[in-house]
Each structure stands twice: as structure tokens, then as C-alpha cells.
Recover the amino acids of this structure.
């Protein structure tokens, strides 16, 4: 659990990007696919703008959201070792990606591979943190964790961490957090009623990020904090 909390407090810079002027830019319209599972994989994509939803089929043949890619994230990394893409990626708003041909990335002269590797490493750390979160947090904590993580990623891109526009649906969030969409909505309503956030459709205002973060503390740490506060009042 402490690893989840610490991952929120750390501020990692957005990985440096390769010299993208040399590569083709591709604009993706809202709700259009960047690529589909099974499509021949010949490019890695660096997100330059927009929000992209990543999905794979689970063991029951249902789409499962595996993440939401923002500026600086890398998509389609499997093209470096596999002939076809493993999942679907769709733009949730107007997006733009830089096409990095796999053969060019593998060429040491391109100088692009270190930046892609850094982005992959950051994504792997985030994936591990989420795996831990899904096994240890309840519904409200998962939603709080999602909002804080998303706000932090937006802040690193220069946006306000207090006001978040969710381009994804409640069902998308629920699929990612392994929750029903109704449970996501109820959790947001409870956090709103507690004065931690203000919800207006897809617009979320984070009113008290510190209190929201404290929801993620293990019970023993939360109890210790309350005891310290009580001691200072006597």
C-alpha cells in the first residue's frame, strides 16, 4: 500500500521524446481507431496530443480497458517484437500521434530508442502501481486513486491538477478499475458529498487533494495520523 501512496507523491518528468520532426505526424479524429488487435504491427506511436483508450480482449471475449494514453506515452510497442498489434487503441477526442517505424527505432543511428525505452519504463511502473491498487483498494479508494493519478499526469503536461475533464465514460473507468460503471458513479457521488471533489458530468473539480490522498493510507497509518492530530489538541 505504501508503494501506491508514494507513487502519487513522486513527480516524475515526462520522458524526453525523440527528434519527432523527422517522423510523420498522424491526426486521429474522435472515436476513430489508431489500430486494431490483429492488424499488422509496423509502427510504434508516440502520443503528441489527445487521450487514447487502450483495450484488449479478456479470457471471456470481452473488451477490457488497460489504460488511457496521454501526451508522451508510447503505443504499439509490441511492433518491435511481434508481427501484429495485441489490442485496440481508439481516440477519445481529437488526437495526434507521431509514427515511429519499428525498423527506424531499431536502428541505433536514429537515436530514438532511448526515449521510447524511458517511456516504456514509466508505463511499466504505472502498470505495477495499478496492479497493486486493484488488489488493495476499495471502490472509493480506487476512484480517488484514478482521479489523483490522472490529475498528476495532466499537471506534468502543464494543465491544472484541480480541474479534470474526463474524456472517458464511467464504463471505461469501471473497466479499467475492475468495477461496474454504477459503482464508479456511486463512489464519485460519495466523494462529492464528502466535499473532496465536485462532479458535473465529465468535469471533475478536485477540492481537497490532500484529503483525497489520505483516503489511500493504510488503516494503521490513518489511525496514527488521527492520534497525532488529537495529541496536538490537548
Amino acid at each position: 500500500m505504501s508503494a501506491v501512496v508514494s507513487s502519487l507523491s513522486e513527480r516524475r518528468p515526462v520522458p524526453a521524446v525523440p527528434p519527432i520532426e523527422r517522423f510523420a505526424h498522424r491526426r486521429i479524429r474522435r472515436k476513430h481507431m489508431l489500430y486494431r488487435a490483429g492488424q499488422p504491427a509496423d509502427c510504434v506511436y508516440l502520443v503528441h496530443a489527445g487521450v487514447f483508450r487502450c483495450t484488449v480482449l479478456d479470457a471471456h471475449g470481452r473488451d477490457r480497458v488497460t489504460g488511457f494514453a496521454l501526451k508522451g506515452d508510447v503505443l504499439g510497442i509490441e511492433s518491435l517484437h511481434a508481427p501484429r498489434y495485441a489490442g485496440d487503441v481508439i481516440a477519445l477526442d481529437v488526437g495526434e500521434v507521431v509514427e515511429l517505424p519499428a525498423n527506424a527505432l531499431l536502428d541505433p543511428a536514429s537515436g530514438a530508442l532511448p526515449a521510447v525505452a524511458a517511456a516504456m519504463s514509466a508505463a511499466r511502473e504505472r502498470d505495477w502501481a495499478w496492479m497493486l491498487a486493484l488488489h488493495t483498494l476499495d471502490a472509493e479508494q480506487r476512484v480517488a486513486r484514478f482521479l489523483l493519478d490522472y490529475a498528476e499526469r495532466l499537471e506534468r503536461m502543464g494543465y491544472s491538477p484541480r480541474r479534470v475533464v474526463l474524456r472517458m465514460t464511467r464504463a471505461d473507468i469501471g473497466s479499467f478499475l475492475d468495477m461496474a460503471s454504477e459503482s464508479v458513479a456511486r463512489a464519485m457521488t460519495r466523494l462529492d458529498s464528502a466535499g473532496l471533489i465536485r462532479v458535473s458530468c465529465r468535469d471533475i473539480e478536485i477540492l481537497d487533494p490532500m484529503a483525497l490522498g489520505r483516503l489511500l493510507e493504510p488503516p494503521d497509518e490513518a489511525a496514527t495520523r488521527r492520534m497525532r492530530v488529537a495529541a496536538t489538541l490537548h
